[in-house]
Every structure is written in structure tokens, then in C-alpha cells.
Specification:
single chain, about 150 residues, alpha/beta, Ribose 5-phosphate Isomerase B, Chain: A, five-stranded parallel β-sheet, 6 helices
């Protein structure tokens, strides 16, 4: 899979670990930064990653910050982004199976490396179920269209 990865300063250490894990798992990974622990504004990186995924230049995106919520909030402002913060393997499975998430948001300060590995493993091994979930995602797209005027 071709993946794009991004973080703010709070997610930098976690991003470095995640990038290595994804590459070892055989994914092609492009890192949009940040590239150090110096402070950056998470909306800037989240927007870049979300736009890259929505434009289909990448299959999926992964964003990290301290707890996963801030980058998720920002990424979801891009129409077509379906960013979900996953805190464990259950939320990772639902993000993939029910929400067809195209951006996985992780907390680098709230999860250790073993937990991050399990979340990534489950997310990337879970297929979208479709069916009843298609209509719900269509409703979300309708909300986006209504407010993008």
C-alpha cells in the first residue's frame, strides 16, 4: 500500500517508530513531517496528509499527535477525509470495517510501541464491510456537500 505519514511535534517520536513498522510490513511510506520535535501546528500537517489521501495520490494516511484527537479533528475538515482516532485494536477494527477510514490517527504520548503495532496490524488487516455502512458514509458525504457551499 502507498501510505502518507504526518505528525506534529507531540507525535514525532511515535511517527518515527510507525514509519519503520510500516516499511518493515512492506508498505511504501512518504513522510510529510514534521521532521523534529520542534513545535509545529498540527492543522498544517493534517491538511497536507488529508488532501493527499482524498486526491488518491496515496491509499491511506496516518497522522500522529500527542493523543490522536487534534490531527483527527483537523483532517476531517477536508471533504472526503474519513479520519478516525484509534486507541486500541477494537477501535482500529471499527475504523476500517465500519467507517472505511482513509486516515488513521494515533496518539504517540498515550500509546506505547506494542499498542501502536497492534493498532496498525488490525487496521491494515481489516477489510471494509460495506453493506449497511455504505448508506451511513453516503450521509456523511451529504453533510460535507451541504456545508461546503
Amino acid at each position: 500500500m502507498k501510505l502518507v505519514l504526518g505528525c506534529d511535534h507531540g507525535g514525532f517520536a511515535g511517527k518515527e517508530f510507525v514509519r519503520g513498522w510500516l516499511q518493515k510490513a512492506g508498505h511504501e511510506v512518504v513522510d510529510f513531517g514534521c521532521h523534529s520535535a520542534e513545535a509545529v501546528d498540527y492543522p498544517d500537517v493534517a491538511q497536507l496528509v488529508a488532501e493527499a489521501v482524498v486526491s488518491r495520490r496515496f491509499d491511506k494516511g496516518i497522522l500522529l499527535d500527542g493523543f490522536g484527537g487534534a490531527v483527527c479533528l483537523a483532517a476531517n475538515k477536508v471533504p472526503g477525509a474519513r479520519a478516525v482516532a484509534a486507541y486500541d485494536s477494537v477501535s482500529a477494527r471499527f475504523a476500517a470495517a465500519h467507517e472505511d477510514a482513509n486516515i488513521l490517527c494515533l496518539g504517540a504520548k498515550t500509546r506505547g510501541e506494542l499498542a501502536l503495532c497492534e493498532i496498525l496490524r488490525v487496521f491494515f488487516s481489516t477489510e471494509y464491510e460495506g453493506g449497511r455502512h455504505d448508506g451511513r458514509l453516503a450521509k456523511i458525504a451529504g453533510i460535507e456537500r451541504r456545508y461546503s457551499r
